[in-house]
Every structure is written in C-alpha cells, then in structure tokens.
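User: Can you fold this complex?
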Amino acid sequence: MRVQLFTTCLIDAFFPETREAVLRLLRHFGVEVVIPPGQTCCGKPSDSGGYTRESRRAAVHFLSLFQGSDPILIPSGSCASMVKNHYPLLLGNDPRLREKAEVLAGRTYELSQFLVQVLRVHEAGLSWSGRITYHASCQLQRELGVREEPLLLLRSLRGAEFVPLSHMDRCCGFGGIFMAKLPELSLALAEEKAEEIISSGADTVTGCDHGCLLNIADALRRRGSKVRVKHLAAVLAEALPGKQT
Amino acid sequence: MSAKNEIPTHPIPFRALALRSLSDPELRATLSLVVETFTQKRQEALAGLPWEEWRERLSSLRLQILNDLPAFVHLFAARARAVGATVHQALDAKSACEIVTSILREREARRVVKSKSMISEEIHLNQHLREQGIEAIETDLGEYINQLAGHGPSHLIVPAIHHNRRRIGQLFAHKLNVPYTEDPVELTRIARKFLREEFLRAQAGITGANFAVAETGSLVLFTNEGNGRLVTTLPPLHLALVSIDKMIPSTGDLPLVVRLLPRSATGQILTSYLSVITGAREAAGSWGAHELHIVLVDNGRSRILASPYREMLKCIRCGACSNACPIYRLVGGHAYGSTYPGPMGAVLTALLEGMERAHPLLDGSTLCGACAEVCPAKVPLVTLLRRLREQKVEARLTPWVERAAMAGWACAVRFPLLYRLGKVAAGVVWPVAKRIGRNTVLGRMPDFAPRFFRRRIW
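Assistant: Here's the predicted assembly.
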C-alpha cells in the first residue's frame, strides 16, 4: 500500500520527531510513504481568520501537489478538516477546482482514522508502559467526527494505563489565530487543561494536533510539570516492537 | 426621540472587558460552577432521547417559518386581533419604545411590572420608560437583582449569573435596607416581599414571549418563578413585546419546542410554568388582563432574513451555546458588551449593531464548535462566525500587521522555495523574536527544531 503524507507546517518547523515517528509507524505496517515535495501550509490559519483569498491560494497549491489516487494522510485533525471540509467550500466558485477538491477530500484521512480504519493498528498488540491521557482536539472530533479512533488506539496499548481527562473534549484555547489575538484567554484555557492533565496523574499527554499540544506544553511548562507531551504518532512509534523506551 | 436607542458606533472593547472578568476569581468560580451544572443537567435531561432527530425537526420547522416569515407574521396578527388583542408593528427599537410609551400614557400608567424579556433589553425599553417618567420594575429574580445593581443581563436564561449569593446579599442589604444574609431562601423571600407590593400597585404588565403561535394568535411563555403569571394576569393591561422571529406555525408544534427549550436551557424537562395566552380576558371569571397589546418588533430581523446570515434567526434563545462555550465560561456575558452574550450573541450583535461596533466580538472564539454541537435549532454558529470574520477582513477592520502578515504568508504558501527561505529566516530570528516578544504569543511558542538547519526537509 502506498500513501501520500502531508507533514503540516507546524510539524515541519517545530516537531520533526513527530514526522519521523509517523514514517516509522507507517513503514512498520508495510505502508510505502511518499512525501510530495513543495509542501507548505494547508491554509487553516488564514481560513479561520477570515482571509478567504489567502486561503484559496494555499488550497490551490495543495491541490497541485497531491496528484494521483493514493490516500492522503495528515497527522493533524485541523489540517485534515481544512482539506476535507473547507477546501470544497473555499473553491466553490470554480466548478473545476471544486470537483478536484471534492475528489481530494474523499481520499484524505486524518492519521488516527487511517491507523484504525485501514491498518487496524489497534489490533496489532503494541505495548507501551506508562500512564497516558488524551486531549480530543476540536476539529478532529466535531468536524471530522474522529472521537473513538484515538481512544481505541490508546486503550489497545498493552502495559499502558489510559486515564481520561474530566473534560477531554473541551477546547484547549489554541484556536490558531486566536492564540495570537487573545493570548491571555488562550493561556487561561490552556492552564485549565494543564491542571486537569496534572491532576489525572498521567505521565504523558497525547493528542492528534500539534497546535493544541504546543499550547498545552507551554501551560504545563509554566507550571513546572514533568508531564511529557507527545503526538499520538510518537506514542505509537514508541510502542512498536523493539522501540519501547 | 431618545438618543439611547441609537447604537453607539465605537467598537465594543471585548478584550478589555474580557481581561477584567479574567482577573475576577470570584466571577470565574461562579461562572464555572453554574455553567458546569447546566451542562451536566442538560446532558442528563437529553440522555436516551432522540436528540438528533428532534433538533433536525426543530431546525426544519424554524426554516419553514423563515422561508415564509411575512405570511406567518400576518397570520399571527390577524388571529391575535380576532381573539381580542390589539396588535402593533414596530420597525425598529425607537418605534417599539414609542408604541409602548404611548399605550401606557393613554392609560396614565406610571408603574409597570415586567417579566424577563430579551427583546425589551435589546431595545433598551427600561431606560426609555424612565426618561418618560414611567417606572418599570423587573420581577424575574435575576432581572430584579440586575436592576438593583444597575447591570444588564449576562446570560440569556440566568441573567444574574455573574452574582454569587454573597454579592446578592450585599446588594440587598445596601439597596433594600435589609439585614445582610446570604441564605438563598431568605434572599428570595426578601425579593418576594418587595415584589408583591409592586405586583399589586402596577397599572400594567410587560412581557416578551418565547414563541408566538401564528394559527391561534397565542403567546407562549416559559417561566420558572410564577412572576410571568402575575405580570400577565394581575394588572389590567398586558403589553407583550414579540420579535417577529418568534413565530411557530401552530399549537401542534408546541410539543417539539416544549421538549427542546427547557432541556437545552437549564436541563429541566419542563419549566415550572408554561403559559399560553390567547387574547384578553373576555368576561368575569376568565383569566388574563382586561386589555392585551402585542407589539411585533422587527428591529433588523427582516434585514437579517434577506442576508446570508438568515439561519441566525432559527435561534430560540436557550443559552445552551453560552454554557458550552469555553470563552463564555472564562469571561461571562458582560464581556460581550451588548444585550446578547456568548456565541449567538457575538453573531447576533454583529448583525443587529453592525460590524464597526461588534467586530471585536468575532475574535473571541476559537471556532471550537462546542456551541453548534449543543444548539437545538442547529444554528451553524461556526459557519456564521467564520463568515462574519470574512466580512470583517473585507471591511479592513483587522489590524494592518495581521493583514500584512497574511499577505506575505499567502505569497509564500504558493512558492515552496520562498516558503523555505522564509522558514530559514524565521528560524534565525526566532530566538531573538521569542525574547523580545516573550509576553506575546511568541513567548509561548516552541523552539525551532534544532535539526532544522542541518537537514533538508524535502
């Protein structure tokens, strides 16, 4: 099986270890990964900011890069929702582009969705030791409807203790451009999230969006917490045979 | 004309108001507690019920009404007149206030009692009445507290959510000259004693309506305190303000709204009182005020109906979106600086009061979608917020730094080489930028990946 990977701008700039983890994970399950060259950003920040013209440019560029019919994997709920749900709307004025966007949306998966639905990684008997908790990011659960997949994956880890947060599905306050525009509110929400993570007793918090995770990591750091913040792909890569740390 | 009916044009200082709330730990604790309680009760009240099916039905019912709104309004007016009500139509806040005043003046009414009505808040009726020498007393406990404190409502359903019992105790002691107590039962008893006098003295009662039944000309009121009954039956005159989007086709549609409104609002299966008022009192022995006047208020609804934002008019004012909103939970209703708070408030205020005034409210959302998820009428709040942000950008109301950054970024996303160059440049200045901007969002960002310079990413 062959897939195309969109690595996302945040992972490219700040979290190359997540990118490596995604590659290791997919290769372990026999997936050939193609990373179409020339990737930039999906356009989510401008789209939620109301900058339609700018977002269209990002969408058109994305469409030109991802040719063919292989599944497209995106290790981020908000970027995946941008491609799947927002591109067809953004490009609605141009029937040709709109159709392309719809076809593209049809073969786009958020990573955890693909891991469960296609690769059935939750049945692979991976093992990982530690107490882990999970933040359900907003676009992932509400726009893509991916609620169960990450939980299935985490609960399937042998040796891992999954501890749910009391408000797992509450926004962490990242919100893309929101974090820059109203930083105090963003931090206040992230601090509440951090508090819940700390009181859950978990040693690791995971999620499917590095936007949320960076916001949460900063709030945890400000509290002097030692809780590790890792993308779900990084946790699963650690759980591969022979990779347990 | 009253200058108070004119909407101020300076932008609502959302950020400053939000920061003020944020630094009030007592307010934050109260908000968290109340919102959490409502959220939980709502979940319990909806558990095991065909929620998705119900809200789909409510959504299509509301759309059906909107698609034919003038006809429903016309039918309602005709049927209400047929059962003895006098029906007035007001295009805007000013004319609505003037209609109310002239009715009260003709009857020399100087003291009126009110039950909770958001449309009366929207048109600033109390202020207008006061200027005309008419005293209007709010009789909903929350509104009574707000009136004593000189505050507007901070929640659609629980207007005094921002007061805890200690603050209410202090307020009562100060304003009503009673001994301080923070016992809720005792506080309610005090309010009740003062309000009874007002009910008995009032020459008119003013209410809003949760729904208006077109087929029968009836007004539907959901209340919890019994004050609504007293306001509509004790004084000789009942004046109801109804915004035109409150129409439902027939009494056959009532069960659906009865199922959804209280559950969504407070997690109640039914409010303590559900009143359906059809016409004025006919003869001795029957219920109701002797005289019933209904003022149908447009105040921007027809304009919204003709705009791409018409689905906002599906809203039934349950407040569930505020309870679900992470930002509302942090800052409370007063941060929104207008009549309607929370996610629906941000959208409706922008539509009613204009972009110039309301655009800062549009920033106050992470677009997390929790609001749209709980909305019983399926108002697409996230879509509407995003669309309004587009309009804000088009109106050039976003800061120039942001516009410039977006323009530069939009250039780079199309040209991978430029994008990489930009990233390298950003990587070089990042540590310095983080230091300089440590109190801004930059200080919260991670470091650029150390391997970033050594390794080609593609």
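Chain B touches chain A through 53 residues (CB under 8 Å). Residues 66-249+272-302 of chain B form a domain with the Rossmann fold fold (CATH 3.40.50.10420).
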